[in-house]
Amino acid sequence: MSVCSEAEPRGRRTVLRRAFKLVSVGMSDYVRRLREKVGHDLLFWPSVVCLVRDDGDRVLLVRHAEEGWWTLPGGAIDPGESPAEAARREALEEASVEVELLGLAGVFGGYPDFHGFYANGDEVAWVTTAFDAHITAGTPAPGDDETGDVRWATSAEAFTLELTPSARHILVQTGRGRAFDP
Question: Which of 8, 112, 151, 156 has the fewest beta carbons under 10 Å from its own?
């Protein structure tokens, strides 16, 4: 995982230090159409993650195939899709599991942990709705070409892994019993 080390002027805005650099970009038709209009400029989008826990209170993590960092199953909400629908879809796509959403774990966003750049120069920022969930069907396994591995981890184990800044942020805050940033 790498981060930008310097502030860099980009048009009428300034990129904040420590923006997360992303290698690959899985792009929906909707985002592709937006990118055709705005180029590499900042896109802000809603996203979701699932805090899937097992009976031992371990959390399910997915490892991105190209970048190698670990994160929570999740992704962008598609136009017309509810956050709950997106959370269930992303768990199935990334980790091959169907989940029941148990409740809202929190809503998180803001720089620098929820901001980044793709290798092609696309700038993104997001706000994430996090759901507590448990598996109702399936066995955790990579579910698409963006997911290289899946694993269960205790909180202590998770923090020894190369986590995305946003996953680390969400795990820290929810571990403190916080559903949002103060």
Answer: 156
